[in-house]
Amino acid sequence: MTTITDYAPEPGRLVEFRATAAGGPVTPEPLSYLQENHLRRLLANQAAGRSQSPWLATVFDLPGTFRPEAMAAALEKWLDRHPTLLTWFSLDDGGLQRHTVERDTVALEIVPAGEVADIAGYLHERFDEGTDPLRWPPFVAGAIVREDSATVYYAVDHSHSDGYSVMLVFAELRALYEAELAGTPARLPEVGSYVDACVLERERAARLTLDSPEAREWLDFWLSGPPPTFPLELGTEPGRFYPTAAVDLDVFDAAEAEAFSHACKANGAGFSAGWLTALGITAYELADVKNYRGLAVVHTRDEPRWQAAQGWFINLGPVAFPLAGQGEFGEVVARAQAAFEQAQSLARVSLLRVAELLPALDPQGDAAAVPPMASYLDMRHAPGVREWQEANMALLVGPGQTADVSMWLNRLVGRTYLKAQYPDTEAARAAVPRYLEHLVRVLREIARTGRYRINTPVPAPV
Question: Which CATH code of 3.40.50.11890, 3.40.50.12500, 3.30.559.10, 3.40.50.11690 fits the domain covering 2-197?
Answer without folding.
Answer: 3.30.559.10
